[in-house]
Write a structure and sequence with these properties.
The structure is a homohexamer of 180-residue chains. By secondary structure, chain A is an all-alpha fold. Chain A has helices at 9-12, 24-44, 51-60, 65-68, 73-76, 82-92, 99-107, 111-133, 139-155, 161-176. The relative contact order of chain A is 0.15. At the A-D interface, helix 4 of A face helix 4 of D.
Chain lengths: 180, 180, 180, 180, 180, 180
């Protein structure tokens, strides 16, 4: 389970020592638990969410990094067909059956894929805040940019307006509580 | 998300330096992915498994350690009502609604709770093997004991015989492939 | 010497990465050196202290953690007979002869046991301050609580009033000097 | 100097914990010292080598990773114009003037670029051997593949036959001496 | 308490990563506990040992390294008056009163100083064995050399013959038990 | 290449954990890159600098620490003939031919040796600032002292006045840019 051992490049590039850098597995764990909690709130507010699919997406969303490593945005944008690389990686891991899930993640149109992307950003923001608190000032810029992205996502997405409102409140609570 | 930062006591007690010790979050991540894979195999072999419940159990099975730390067996056995401590911990984390899930885990009677317990042992065995390969010889005894427990579990459990056979084959493949 | 490798749970639970978390051995070393210094001051002020017993208590006060791990207060309080666990641990370590010392520590009535408990709290406070300075803000609450406990202990204990005054002055000097 | 903080992806993907993974800076340092030593041997055997250019190439050959991270081969091969990314990275670092050096490295035709590529492989091989000795068995395959690449390079390159012979002897000595 | 943070140079020079290198405090802790145990055995065999002095020496024997760092033998031998440096260091630490103890350690003539030197070597040997087991092969030579020094010390020292015999038996038990 | 594994004593003595302490190799890498950049600026401003010699000095200036460890100033001043120790170390490393370079470094009279000493201080200052930003307050005093030394060096040295002015501007830019 290689992702337990791969430190996220974005942190190391911003001054966080490798010995303290969040791994891909730790990040995916946080994304999954956040998805569980937020998905639960959506459900109890009456909105249908396929939690099973959400959790699968959350757990596997970065699994291709076992094979291709953690590539930063600036590089990903230069690759003509990034999905092909991820599908090849899934094949190498014997996990082709989940390739369909990945397509969903890429398109981001289903409620589940959207929810996982929200949690991916939220988890990254929470971790960035932990690092900023510890004095890794170079992380601040990233925290700000992720926060803006998250806000945009929570303003409009493939969910009914009230569902977005539920999410906004839940995310706000998490950030305020300073749960770190 | 404290569990991302808590190293598992069992490894540290057997010579693995804290800087290399698997955290509770990393372990839970591995348990969840294994549960996803094994649950998938059971399903495609025709056995009904509630994957959503399985993944929730897997992700949260050690979450109480955020509050009570990672307690070794020898001590757990001395606590009159361990479940009470875990329920209190869940309350402190604002996660009481999942207390019911925990009861299930304790009793271990449902197919889902059983599957998570199998994966909990399998994940620990895989990690123990990684440590033994690196020369942490004190881990060997634990690896052997977990292996025996896993074998016992895979011989008889709250699943039909052919379901157990599917699991045994899948676990065997994982161990042989040396996927580390 | 397992305690050289066991990171203290309290730090990890409050955000200090395992790679930076103080181990049980490092803590016990600090307790012993502080006991040496404070015991020396008591002696040169005319108060009788058995330094040999004090140092033994300081060095061994957490040795049971080699076997039972580092258990947080909230859990210790739930164990009916914690001393029994510690005695069993000592037996496993081949150190039964020191069990009597442990009883003393538990009761806390002798000047030596009291001095070790003061140093245990002082060492934890000093380490907490180091972590707070580094930005581990979750440690602040613990630092405050240990400080209050230390103050209470230094106000009344099984020592003559002037002995307590000597200790208060020495502790105050250590905290002010910012010796970190 | 970000590269002092970026752990090399290839090691982490093969089981080496981030806290123990060689950084890009440490690797570049080793490449530069090896280039210094091998370049010196070539010179004292009568072959002209521009040591200044060699050392610059060695020191900067991975500097773009400050901006783009450490990308594995499998991904690099998928990028249509990798040199463009590196040039952009150099620009971001205010180091455009060295872009010409990078072109040389890419083409690999000059004696200096060739020498740096030999040392890049040699340094990686030496580090891989250190990791294999420590029990990171997944690194073995990479060590073997780098060794073969190095042998091919030392068999034919843009240097006179006797110069290659000098290099082969020097490399052989380094590997045999077990200098780790 | 700086020594809690200073990794021992000898280990780092032999391939042990800083994140895994034993600190001066951890080493001193082990020396003190070994001195406690061996001193206890000498006493119960009827030989007079000042345990208080022994433990003070053990705890403080490397405290000067807070100020001067951990200097390897090869350099120490070149310093005309190493004791002067240590005394200055003690002064800086406000610990001049212990300077007399240090003189004793240097001369090595008292039973207590001898016992601490035995434990200093034994602790280093035990730690070296742990590192060799983990694959740090460069440590082997040091382990062998410390073992020989320990054997020489246990053959003749400022203790009666039967006292040395008690020590030899106790050391042998510790090494055989593989207590690591 | 031992220096890749030796953490710099000065950092550890000031509270930086070994797992986060800059190694001798990482430091030398930074010194070399800074020397490359500053040397380049001098050259393009019309001043003759032997870059090849500068880079060799930069890469090797601490290589003796592979054998003698990282000794702090206070101790180095006490060694009658420190250069002899370094020459012996170079011999042990099979690098005697570079001993002449080291003499130059010691005397500090050539432009190249001066430039390397400037970069040695600048690199240490940059790293100290990184640590101070992270909350290692004990490093502040060292940062201040290195800054003053650097300023003195940049005021008068074995270079023409305008060359010093070029250096002062370049160093100032580096410090202001906050390139960390």
């Amino acid at each position: 389970m290689r992702v337990k051992n791969i430190a996220r490049t974005g942190w190391m590039m911003r001054g966080v020592p490798p010995s303290e850098s969040e791994t891909v597995a730790a990040h995916s764990y946080e994304v999954a638990v956040l998805a569980l909690v937020l998905g639960g709130k959506l459900r109890s507010s009456g909105f249908a969410v396929d939690i099973e699919k959400t959790l699968k997406l959350a757990l596997l969303h970065d699994i291709a990094e076992s094979v291709i490593g953690d590539i930063v945005k600036a590089v990903k944008e230069r690759i003509p067909n990034p999905r092909a690389i991820e599908v090849d990686a899934l094949r190498e891991l014997g996990m082709e059956e989940y390739a369909k899930l990945f397509e969903e993640l890429e398109l981001g149109s289903s409620a589940e894929a959207y929810l996982v992307e929200v949690c991916d950003n939220l988890a990254t923001l929470l971790q960035a805040i932990r690092y900023v608190n510890r004095g890794y000032t170079q992380v601040l810029e990233l925290a700000e940019s992720v926060r803006r992205r998250l806000e945009r996502m929570l303003t409009s997405g493939p969910l009914p307006g009230e569902a977005l409102a539920v999410l906004r409140r839940a995310v706000s609570d998490l950030l305020i509580s300073g749960e770190v």
